[in-house]
Amino acid sequence: MAKKRIVIDYEKLPEDTLNSIKVEHPDGFEDNLITFTNAQGMFVSALPFETEEIYYLIRMTEEEAQDIIKEDDDYGEDGKLRDDFEDDVNDEGEKYLDDNIDEVENIQDESYEA
User: Fold this and answer.
1) Degrees to nearest 5, angle at CA 76 with 56 and 71
2) Under a CB-based contact definition with an 8 Å cutoff, are residues 46 and 60 in contact?
3) How far apart are CA 8 and CA 21, in angstroms?
4) Nearest 10 degrees: CA dihedral of 87, 78, 50, 61?
5) For residues 64 and 68, what is the distance between their CA atoms, to the nearest angstrom?
6) Ranges of the chain whose pLDDT falls below 50
7) In 3-state terms, what secondary structure has residue 44?
C-alpha cells in the first residue's frame, strides 16, 4: 500500500512530528527545501519529511525556514539544534503519529507532482 501524501504548513504539524523533523534536520531546513508544482500549477517550495505512514511536503519558503529556526528555542543562535534536544524528547525516537493519526487523516490532501 502506498504511503499517504500530505502537503501541510509547518505550524499545523503534531508536536511529535515536529520533534522528529528537528532531529532529522539539526542544522535547519533551508538547505533541504525542494520545489514542486501543486494542483493549481504553481511552484511551491517545501521540506520533504517521511514517516512510516505518511510522506509530507511541509510548505515553506527559504525565508520562512530561516525564521522558524531563529524563533525556535530548540535551536541555538548558531542555527544548530541544541545538543540536549534529543534527550528532552521521547526516547522512542521512531514514534511518529501513533497518538495523532486520526487528527492527521482529517487534513485535506493536495495533489502534487514531485
Assistant:
1) 60
2) yes
3) 13
4) 150
5) 6
6) 92-98, 100-114
7) strand
Q: Kindly write down the DSSP assignment for every residue of 12-35, as one continuous string.
A: GS-HHHHHHHHHH-TT-SGGG-EE
Q: How many residues does the chain have?
A: 114
The helix (H) or strand (E) run that includes residue 54 is: strand 54-59
Q: Which one-letter amino acid corresponds to residue 46?
A: A
Phi-psi group of 42: left, alpha or beta (phi > 0 → left; psi -120 to 50 → alpha; rest → beta): beta
For residue range 38-67, what is the model confidence (pLDDT) as tens digits? 889 999 999 999 999 999 999 999 999 999
Cell of residue 7, nine digits: 502537503
Give 84's strand partners.
none
